[in-house]
Design goal:
Largest sheet: 8 strands, mixed
CATH topology: Aminopeptidase
CATH architecture: 3-Layer(aba) Sandwich
Oligomer: single chain
Number of strands: 8
Helix content: 10-25%
Shape: globular
Strand order of the largest sheet: 1-2-3-4-5-6-8-7
Order of helices and strands: EEHHEEEHEHEE
CATH class: Alpha Beta
Structural class: alpha+beta
Amino acid sequence: MKCIIKKQQAEIKNMENYTIKIYKAAEEHIDDITCIYNDSIKIFSSDVRKDSDRNQFIDFYNSNIVYIAERTDISKKIGWIAYKIDRDHIFISGLYLLLNEQRKGNGTKILDYCFKSLWKNNYKIISLNALKTAPWSVEFYKRNGFTIFDHNIECGNELEFIKTEEIKNWEIVMYKILNI
């Protein structure tokens, strides 16, 4: 098995002149992960959004690799990213930021940290499912180098792992080839 990001931390200067620290989540962060998720989905109407509880995120934490983003100036956890490794590619299971921490460059900083770390470990492709009902998230991923997967376009063997049969009608598959 390839070496995953060892207990390293990164401190990244944000556009608004504060630093975020990114580090591997521990079980003690499950409540923070839950709160960040529930805050970030407030943007959706109540008929769409479904708050989660700690028990759901215990299972999520145990089946994913999760990293926390923390603002160092106020010692506050502001976001997280989770992913799974399947052979030689990565699937991003979630990227969430507190509502008041969105659109400040934090999501891009978290993604860049993961891209560089995963690229060092020889992973070449990252995929994710984006919500069609959140066009701003699709645009965010496009700005960060992701492409919408299209089954009708001949893609070579490198993308054969994408499991489109599990995709819900409110999702689209996106991918990025790491070539940092």
